[in-house]
Specification:
Mean pLDDT: 97
Largest sheet: 8 strands, parallel
Bound molecules: 1-O-alpha-D-glucopyranosyl-D-fructose, calcium ion
Shape: globular
Strand order of the largest sheet: 13-12-11-5-2-1-17-16
Structural class: alpha/beta
Oligomer: single chain
Radius of gyration: 23 Å
Length: 538
């Protein structure tokens, strides 16, 4: 039963969602205390970022034990209660499956150092290039190289991410069996499926040096190879035992590569979360920002909407800067926040709503390293400093791109620490929480939050929005218009992504506008979104 084609999936970054015990760190009891809020918003499933045992080198994406809960977040009993309490409210739980790598604190790694250990080749170990150099010229996702010398084993190990995140070696069949057991452990607890972390780079075909000269040298030796597809088909067999859902985070894929990962007939993943639409405001890499290009954004969304059997739609997550002002406008904060909500909740596919997006949370103005926690941002700050990039430019780059923009605590109220904690938060609360917070918006029928709740209800009641076709109508530098249709009923969305009024030829019965309106004559106000019906909903 494809429930995930009807649900809005809400992503929680547990560390920053709700603290329940005053230690300044969000936790599972805190999430449980907010389940009624999530049910009122109208979401159907929660994607929980990792809560497993972890030394937090990458805030949980460095797992040291997949079967225990990080005590900072609570206990296994808390986790079982969350699954139970969520299901009581009709909300499914999806866990984050991080299986490209483990923490170097994982017992597989620690014991794998010892000669003759059964875990000796659970990872990629190498003596190097023979004269003291690194095994190859690959570079990692967090900048820098991706080999670390282990003094105990006197060999290098591969880490495509942080040096505390050692890549698992799937050439060893025992590794895949371990992963299947971990999946069954959580599926037996009643989770509904998994968001699979960087899932299309699992299989490395060789450790040979790369001929690429662009960022991420070595990519050709592990990007979406047949070996990975074989692994995904095996994981799918486990998921099918439980009728469970899987969405894979897939890096550097085109629509056709994505279709190979999640096409109906592929028996691999049900859906993917991809990045092309997130690259319309950068040169080459995300740290080299450029002015957002709405037309390129629309053209990319249209291509993905048309080429995949089923899509996901996201504008924010724990790795991305906030969508206001990135895709919206600080000047038209409320209007653009509502417009982005229409985009997220009316395109064809499963919407992924990230914590805080529903109240228009914005980025943080980082100016010094003590405000920054993210391992990737700290690496980049070090690299830029070593390259003598002036501090002003360096901090402008970090403030625009750092993943910490999305990881500042949820702003529940205008009270101390935004109502997130009674203690000292692990990461600073955004200074604008007096203006941007849930408590105020929940009382305000005109707020961004009220608009999200209304749109989630509209989507839930509309077969057209949940299952209808997608047809592009307009994609200019300002205006994006498209139609959703099912069995003779249609809804047309027209979005003005600019500070200026715009014209459109689309007409219809006005279903919604983020401006007070009685009818629609084709003129769109700045950042106006309209939904027009043909025999549709009112
Ligand atoms: O991210 C994988 C990924 O490629 C990027 O999203 C990454 O965060 C970085 O921004 C590349 O520039 C996943 C998780 O979402 C991320 O939080 C983890 O840090 C990463 O994998 C490693 O597990
Ligand atoms: Ca806590």
């Amino acid at each position: 039963m494809e429930w995930w084609k009807d649900a809005v999936i809400y992503q929680i970054y547990p560390r920053s969602f709700q603290d329940s015990n005053g230690d300044g760190i969000g936790d599972i009891p805190g999430i449980i205390s907010r389940l009624d809020y999530l049910a009122e918003l109208g979401i159907g499933a929660l994607w929980l970022c990792p809560v497993y045992q972890s030394p937090n080198a990458d805030n949980g994406y460095d797992v040291s034990d997949y079967r225990t809960i990080n005590p900072e977040y609570g206990t296994m009993a808390d986790m079982e209660r969350l699954i139970r309490e969520a299901r009581r409210r009709g909300i499914r739980i999806i866990m984050d499956l991080v299986i490209n790598h483990t923490s170097t604190e994982h017992h597989w790694f620690r014991w794998g150092r010892e000669k003759g250990s059964p875990y000796g080749d659970y990872y990629y170990w190498s003596r190097g290039d023979g004269d003291g150099g690194l095994p190859n010229n690959w570079t990692g996702f967090f900048g820098g190289d991706c080999w670390e010398f282990d003094v105990e084993r006197c060999e290098y190990y591969l880490h495509l991410f942080g040096k505390e995140q050692a890549d698992l070696n799937y050439h060893n069949p025992a590794v895949l069996e371990e992963v299947k057991d971990i999946m069954r452990f959580w599926l037996d607890k009643g989770v509904a499926g998994f968001r699979c972390d960087v899932i299309n780079i699992l299989w490395k075909d060789s450790l040979a040096s790369s001929k690429r000269r662009a960022a991420l040298t070595g990519l050709e030796h592990y990007l979406s190879l047949e070996g990975t597809h074989k692994i995904l088909r095996q994981l799918r067999q486990v998921l099918d035992e439980y009728d469970a859902f899987s969405v894979g985070e897939a890096v550097f894929v085109t629509p056709s590569m994505a279709q190979d990962l999640c096409g109906r007939d592929r028996r691999e993943l049900d859906a993917v979360l991809t990045f092309e639409h997130m690259e319309c405001d950068q040169y080459l890499v995300k740290w080299l920002k450029r002015k957002f290009r709405p037309k390129a954004f629309f053209d990319c969304l249209i291509q993905w909407q048309q080429e995949l059997d089923w899509n996901t739609i996201y504008l924010e997550n724990h790795d991305q800067p906030r969508s206001i002002p990135r895709f919206g406008s600080r000047k038209y904060w409320k209007k653009s926040g509502k417009l982005l909500a229409v985009l997220l909740l009316t395109l064809r596919g499963t919407p992924f709503l990230y914590q805080g997006e529903e109240i228009g949370m914005t980025g943080f103005d980082f100016t010094r390293i003590r405000q920054v926690n993210d391992v990737e941002s700290r690496n980049v700050n070090r690299i830029l400093t070593n390259l003598h990039v002036p501090a002003k430019l360096r901090w402008r780059m970090i403030a625009r791109t750092s993943r910490d923009n999305a990881r500042t605590p949820f702003q529940w109220s205008s009270g101390p620490q935004g109502g997130f904690t009674t203690g000292r938060p692990w990461l600073g609360v955004n200074h604008n929480c007096a203006k941007v917070n849930l408590a105020d918006q929940r009382q305000d029928p005109d707020s961004i939050w009220s608009w999200y709740r209304d749109l989630c209800a509209l989507r839930k009641s509309s077969d057209v929005l949940r299952r209808g076709s997608f047809q592009p109508l307009e994609a200019t530098k300002q205006v994006f218009a498209y139609r959703r249709e099912l069995e003779g009923e249609s809804l047309t969305m027209v979005l003005n992504f600019s500070d200026k009024p715009a014209q459109t030829g689309e007409r219809g019965q006005l279903v919604r506008s983020n401006y007070p309106r009685r009818g629609f004559d084709g003129t769109l106000q700045p950042w106006e979104a309209v939904i027009l019906g043909e025999g549709g909903l009112t």
